[in-house]
Design goal:
The chain is built from 14 helices and 15 strands. The protein is an alpha+beta fold. Strands 1, 3, 4, 7, 8, 9, 10, 11, 12, 14 and 15 form an eleven-stranded mixed sheet that branches. The longest helix has 44 residues.
């Protein structure tokens, strides 16, 4: 304990260089912890995006492109699926449910999805968690819209507000469907998935706002004044094409069989993918970037520890007289060895503590930005066993690095420090 106090006072006496070394270690710890937390949570967000869906079917393209466009709302599908093909496949033996998806319109840069009521019943995320409503209910009229949690929060929409859909994707559109405003009737609970950034409208409304069946428009507006008769409104219609559709089966045994039949479908070039398999492929592609980032952060930790070693070694020559005085009052070589080792451990330990504090500060300030711009939901929780293991590894590395100046100081003799160097 006495040596520990002596080490603390020695560091305080050299506070400028000690603080600089401590700050360097803290930054490297913060960087390493942040990259690891974002990596783990990003992986979790990816794998939790869709669950319980056996197949995603779209026009023939790449597996990942179909997944990105239909589930993550990233990119565009090159072609659509004809409504006849969708109806034929949806009636195949073993198909328990199907959800048509129609994308291509937007509202202030956010995706608009045309679908049916089965979306709210059968869509699952995370560990087969269903969608639930924070306010309101699913759409019952042609010009009803259900908002994802982020849409309502970021744009400040409430139930009853009017929303105008724009043609095409992107923040700026020159073609707004001003003559067909939608009424907000429901707001979903947050899911941490692209659903939060999506506006959901009836499939028939997609056809309607693009100049489809005008009689439905009139019929829907008539029903706006008679909510008790909304069951008569056709919310699906007969669109020419949809972007993709989701399938769920009664038994997993049907999945591979129907997938093979869809991929060999002669009427139209279609592609069926298993979302779990494609999600793993997508993450394996991104894992290269993940490993490079981890490598960079490890290099930063190593450089900061080498900086600490340089600082201790350079100070050692200036402290020869101090160490010799300690020897003259009875300190043995192993006392000197322990003192120098304790200094390196103190700097590393304090650097880790400050680094963890900076890490949590960064998480608190950056969580909202990552959620809104990258769709990554950060889990601001206590350090996991893996993160504690990383800290222990840094502490151990700091101890090993501190052994070098400690060993050198061990062999300093009493006369070495007391003699005058010319």
């Amino acid at each position: 304990m006495l040596l520990l106090k002596l080490a603390a006072k020695s560091l305080f006496n050299r506070k400028a260089s000690a603080l600089l070394t401590l700050f360097t270690i803290a930054i490297s710890v913060m960087l390493l912890m942040s990259i690891e937390r974002v990596r783990i949570d990003a992986k979790s967000s990816f794998s939790n995006t869709i669950s319980g869906t056996d197949l995603i079917v779209g026009a023939r393209t790449g597996d990942i492109q179909l997944l990105l466009s239909s589930v993550f709302r990233i990119g565009h599908a090159n072609n659509g699926v004809s409504w006849q093909s969708y109806q034929y496949i949806a009636k195949q033996r073993g198909v328990s449910w199907s959800i048509p998806l129609s994308l291509g319109d937007s509202h202030k840069g956010l995706a608009v999805l045309g679908t049916n009521k089965d979306y709210f019943t059968h869509y699952r995320f995370g560990k087969k968690q269903p969608l639930s409503f924070a306010n309101g209910h699913e759409f019952n009229h042609l010009f009803d819209v259900v908002l994802g949690a982020d849409v309502a929060k970021s744009l400040g929409y409430q139930l009853g507000d009017k929303v105008v859909i724009a043609h095409g994707m992107g923040n700026t559109s020159f073609h707004n469907h001003d003559d067909n405003p939608f009424t907000v009737v429901g707001i979903l609970q947050a899911t941490g998935t692209p659903v939060d950034k999506t506006l959901h409208i009836p499939l028939a409304a997609i056809d309607e706002i693009h100049g489809g069946h005008s009689h439905q428009h009139e019929k829907a507006h008539d029903h706006d004044h008679d909510h008790d008769q909304h069951d008569d409104v056709d919310l699906i219609g007969t669109p020419k094409q949809i972007t993709a559709f989701l399938l769920g089966f009664d038994s997993p045994l049907y999945t591979l069989q129907v997938r093979r039949n869809i991929n060999q479908y002669k009427e139209e070039a279609l592609l069926a993918i298993m979302p779990g398999v494609t999600l793993r492929e997508l993450w394996e592609m991104l894992s290269i970037v993940e490993k490079i980032l981890l490598l960079f952060s490890i290099v930063v930790v190593i450089i900061s520890l080498l900086g600490m070693l340089t600082s201790l070694l350079s100070n050692l020559n200036q402290r020869r007289r101090e160490l010799a005085i300690l020897r003259s009052v009875g300190a043995r070589p192993w006392h000197i060895f322990t003192l120098i080792s304790a200094e390196s451990l103190l700097i590393t330990g304090l650097g880790c503590l400050v680094g963890v504090a900076l890490f949590y500060a960064l998480m608190l300030f950056g969580a909202g930005y990552l959620q809104s711009h990258a769709g990554i939901s950060l889990n601001i929780a206590l350090l996991s066993a893996y993160e504690l293991m990383l800290l222990a590894a840094i502490m151990f590395a700091g101890f090993i690095v501190g052994l070098i100046p400690a060993t050198r100081a061990y062999f300093y003799s009493l006369a070495d420090g007391m003699s005058i160097k010319i």
